[in-house]
Amino acid sequence: MSITRTKNRLALLSLAVSVGLVAIKFYAYHLTGSQAVLTDALESIINVFTSGFALYSIYLSGLPKDENHPYGHGKIEYLSIGFEGALILFAGVYIFYSAIIAFLHPHAVGQLDSGMILLGLTALINLAVGFVLVRSGKRLNSVALVGDGQHLYLDALSTVASCVALVLVLVTGNVLFDAGASLVLGAFIVVNGFRMVRRSVSGLMDESDVATVEQVIAELQRQRRPAWIDVHNLRVLRYGANLHIDCHMQMPYYFSLEETHNELNAIEGLIKNRFDVEVEMFVHADPCTFAACSLCQLPDCPVRQHAFNHEVPWTVANAVKNERHRLPPG
User: Which residues form the Cation efflux protein cytoplasmic domain (predicted)?
Assistant: First the structure.
């Protein structure tokens, strides 16, 4: 089964589960009249919309590149988690408002045992499906699936809190525990919604993925050849699951066009083999200068002006800068 088909099936599973759980939770609210259960049910409605949008975004992200989208359609997944986060924020604010009203005007809660059984069932289902989505999303490099799975985790946590509130009401007879749980859940949901929106903006604005940059640099360092004098201006962008990487590599200025081409192909090949996703890599070759002789390890260089001093290890600190490497004076 292809990666795209696997993603689509997982997203469809999430949507189907979300629709079923919303029905169960609203039935639990019908039985109990609990503000905390209503909070949980309202938050679950968001699951339906976000799962549907995640399914659509995953479908779009799997489409091939075209003239209008030369880097593919992968960024739609960041829009998906932004949409999800915005809806969660909206729901959290409304839940917070409703909880305050419930504090001011408390009402009786009934059939607590039936409500807790139904909520407990939905929590277990959400945890199981959320675990599958997060694990599969990380394996398939799908931020939409991971975001959807984390939302299900959040939904399960909300359900557990609602159950705790019902237990406290059952034991103490104080219905304010119900409104209090809803208030806490509203604040928690707002914070998590903000985090999802923040992650979406980071992806859409091409914020650097430091972990992936470190992997690329580490692989270049491990496979380093004498002709690769230094790498700089290295950038890594994510388009959904796929990567776009570009950098400058300083090489001997007297290399023929064919020799330089072969070296660049070797660099691109080893990076593409390092990742199990589609990688588009462009390497710009810079001709060396005599200032680079002291850090160049190429043996029998016919134009060397200075003896080799020592290697400069490639790190995030020096490889991402748009400047050639030099040894400090003295």
Answer: 215-288
Task: With 0.70 as the threshold, say if the pTM is over it.
Answer: no
Contacts of 248 (CB under 8 A, 6+ apart): 231, 232, 233, 234, 283, 284, 285, 286, 322
Contact 3/111 with Cβ under 8 angstroms? no
Q: Based on the number of CB atoms within 10 Å of its own CB, is 45 exposed (0-12), middle (13-18) or buried (19 or more)?
A: middle
> Is residue 272 scored above 80 in pLDDT?
yes
Segments in 62-142 forming alpha helices (H): 76-104, 112-139
Q: Tell me, what amino acid is at 95? A: I
Amino acid at 241: A
Asked if residue 164 and residue 107 are part of one domain, the reply reads yes
Q: 72 — phi, psi (to 5°)?
A: 90, -175
> Residue 103: which domain range?
3-204
What pLDDT sits at residue 330?
45
